[in-house]
Amino acid sequence: MSEIAPGTTYSGVAWAQISAPESPCLINQWPVDNSESLGGTTSEKVPTELAFSYERPSRRILWGFQIPNEMPRLHWFKLRLDPDQKEHIIPSLAKFHKDWKQMSLPHHATIESVPTDYLRSLLNHVHSVLKIQLEAGLCETSDIHIISEPEAAAIHALRATRPNNLEVDDTVLLIDAGDGTVDLITFTIEQLLPCLRLREAAAGTGAYCGSSLLNRRFEGFLRQRLQSNPGWDSDKLDYAMKRFDAYAKRQFTGDTTDIFSFPVHGIADDIELKVHRGMLRVSGEEMHAIFLPVLDEVVRLTNQQIKLSKSSVKAALVVGGFGQNQFLRNHIQENIPSDVRVLAPPDGWTAVVRGALAKVLSQASPSIPRIVISSRVARMHYGHVMSVPYDIQKHDTNRAYWDYYGRRYIIVMNWFIHQGDSISETAPIITYWERKSSLTRTAQSTHHGVRQHATMKAELDDDLQRKIPIKTGQDGEKYYFIDYAFHANYFSAHCDVSLWYEGRHQGSAQITYL
């Protein structure tokens, strides 16, 4: 059984045997060329990057560590899939964001095809690795499971931090600080052993204030200081950015007395620019100024989540790539209520994939202790389109229509879940409906804040079709009248909606949250 966590800048894969769930494995060998060899670079994750080689006879896809250093590549393409990306951008940091959908792509690629090509390449490698395990009898195939990243990270963090005085009824905040986004979720512990049982204490929140914003801000800093120098070019920018991303961004602790050096070979010594022997010196104070606006937004989100929680928060667990930065953790601790402890669980960089694997393993065998989320807090309003009698005092006359019995109706939204409601994963939310099968399709009311998630098409079983009651309308025509129900189960990252008629399941749809 394997789990994949496609990240903004890095992706991870974990797998385990159902017969030995206590021994999960990370795939940490990644190809560096186009050969069939599974070996190459050793890393807990692989870069979420894609490139195309146009050597004849055909175009080839390169991904992850296969891409040569000097080759242009596509990255951060995961962010392009979010239809509401602008709503999650912090206004004070907006100038450092790009509209991911407007970034240039090769003529043969689309916003959807790039992540698809990357995931296909990643999956091919995973299948090759697991094939060896299958042939050795060490691994089983599995179905696809979907779990939200912050929930998966929370599961790993709580399993990994049990010794840190966390007890039943404690409420903990999980901060998944990644490269693209920072996502927060709060749980109250209902049970720790042998099963982990949690309930959400606040609706999850998040924003685009991950560590990639530090890259943007440092890039702006470099351009402002050096772009007027005749020796400045894109190659020097690339080398300096790689040094920042691989070292300075991860090692800076907030100490303003630190000094960092970045390669800018070819630029002459300049005291004013702080360039000496091809190295640009950046002070700790300058680094502090680059970091602080981004860290402040993470703190703002953290305090917001603490206030939203239905119970007092005891600890904040910080995971994710950005979460490994000591300056971030210290800054959070210094700017949230003093009774909330900031903890850094082990293996925080791979918390999502480890937690996702643990959750799925717990569902795969009755011998494995279960991991249960007893209830979640709705992040949005959810509902169905429905027709109600027209009310001249409430409704727009232009949207009203006549039914077959001469009555005026109007199409509205029926909200059966409201933002902030507690939702059980095990108990479906059932709504009952009546349908006149020959009803003419009418215009649906739209609103910029409402999005259609799915359209379900279901065909009744033959024996049920013969039992459908028939009534005569005012126009003398005969119509089928169908009373049916929708059952909706809400999970971590998707919703299963099914149609029921006469107590029998007649069709379903799965809606994946974005």
CATH class of the largest domain: Alpha Beta
What spatial form do the alpha-carbon principal axes imply? globular
Largest sheet composition:
7 strands, mixed
Output the strand order for the largest sheet: 17-16-10-11-12-18-22
Q: Work out the helicity level.
A: 10-25%
Spatial separation of the terminal alpha carbons = 24 Å
Our Rg estimate from Cα atoms comes to 27 Å
Task: Provide the CATH superfamily of the largest domain.
Answer: ATPase, nucleotide binding domain
- Average pLDDT level: 86
Question: In percent terms, what proportion of residues is strand?
Answer: 25-35%
Task: Please count the helical segments.
Answer: 8
Annotation, overall tally of beta strands: 27
The CATH level-2 architecture of the largest domain is identified as 2-Layer Sandwich
The secondary-structure class comes to alpha+beta
Poorly predicted spans: 439-444
CATH topology grouping of the largest domain: Nucleotidyltransferase, domain 5
Count of all domains: 3
Layout of strands and helices, then pairs:
Elements (H helix, E strand, L loop, with lengths): L1 E5 L3 E8 L2 E7 L2 E2 L10 E2 L3 E2 L1 E5 L6 E4 L10 E2 L37 H23 L13 H12 L10 E7 L4 E10 L4 E12 L4 H15 L7 H18 L7 E5 L11 E2 L2 E5 H25 L4 E7 L6 H9 L6 E3 L7 H14 L6 E7 L4 E8 L11 E2 L5 E10 L4 E3 L4 E8 L25 H4 L4 E3 L5 E13 L3 E8 L2 E9 L2
Parallel strand pairs: 10-16, 12-18, 16-17
Antiparallel strand pairs: 1-2, 2-3, 2-6, 4-5, 7-8, 7-9, 10-11, 11-12, 13-15, 14-15, 18-22, 19-21, 20-21, 23-25, 24-25, 25-26, 26-27
Helix pairs in contact: 2-7, 3-4, 3-5
